[in-house]
Amino acid sequence: MLRRFAPLALAALLLPFVATDADASVSIAVGFDQLVKDADTVAVITAGDSNSVWEENRIFTYTKVHVDQGVAGELNAGNDTVVRTMGGVVGDIGQQVDGEAVLIKDKPSVLFLRKYKTGAYEVSARGQGQYPVVIDPQTKLRTMIRSTQAGMILPPKPATVPASGVVTQSVAPNPNAPAATTTVKLAHEILHNRQIDDGAKEIATAWKRLHPPPVQPAAAPATK
Q1: Rounded CA separation 208/218 (Å)
Q2: Residue-level pLDDT at 150
Q3: pTM, entire model
């Protein structure tokens, strides 16, 4: 849901605009494998300065981010890049998009990112692709938590498969056979309240499985 604030009311609404949780947003929970597969890269980042602009009659915010730790894909520690999110404030007009990722300056997050045509990145699955990082002041351990900006998350409908398993072409399926329910591992169930190093290992393992290297073409036979 996109919210637009009138110019005269902006001054009064700007503070709640920044701080409000996206309780009005309702989304279907994204599976862990789906989130990893749809991303072009995953990294622990710290947000820097941002700039909001009008594009296609909507406001988008471009935030400079510093990569603290590469998890999977092409971004590595020390890289700097830009992340594009929906919503922001331009002049006296502000727009809030419920369920969108929100990057706060100097705050770290684990982001699942996909490439955008301008060279920037977007957060895959919006708020569900952002896991803010909290740091224990005593142990200094870094923990990933589910973003409150994702709003209300509804479980997906379970997929069903024949109880007998894989059906081959030579054996017709029995329509009267009971169906077995397959459970999809949800991203927030796996990653919420996980220490970053443990979560990064889980993501990297899934990444190798879901992003296999391209098959190299066979070399042409040598000619005499």
Answers
A1: 22
A2: 80
A3: 0.77
Query: Any idea how long the chain is?
Result: 224
The answer to whether residue 172 is domain-embedded is no
Residue 86 lies in a domain: yes
The verdict on residue 51 lying in a domain is: yes
Domain count, the chain: 1
DSSP track, 61-129: EEEEEEEEEEEEES--TT-EEEEEEE-EEETTEEEEETT-----TT-EEEEEEEE-TTS-EEETTGGGG
pLDDT in tens, 131-173: 999 999 999 999 999 998 887 777 887 654 444 344 334 445 5
Confidence of residue 14 (pLDDT cuts 50, 70, 90): very low
Q: Which residues are within 8 A (CB) of 130 and not within 5 positions of it... i.e. 6 or more apart? A: 101, 102, 103, 109, 110, 111, 112, 123, 147, 149, 150
160 strand-pairing partners:
181
Range of the domain at 51: 2-159+182-210
**CB count in 10 Å sphere of residue 119:** 9
The verdict on residue 173 lying in a domain is no
Mean pLDDT (the chain) is: 83
CATH number of the domain bearing residue 37: 2.40.50.120
Q: What are the tens digits of pLDDT across the range 33-48?
A: 999 999 999 999 999 9
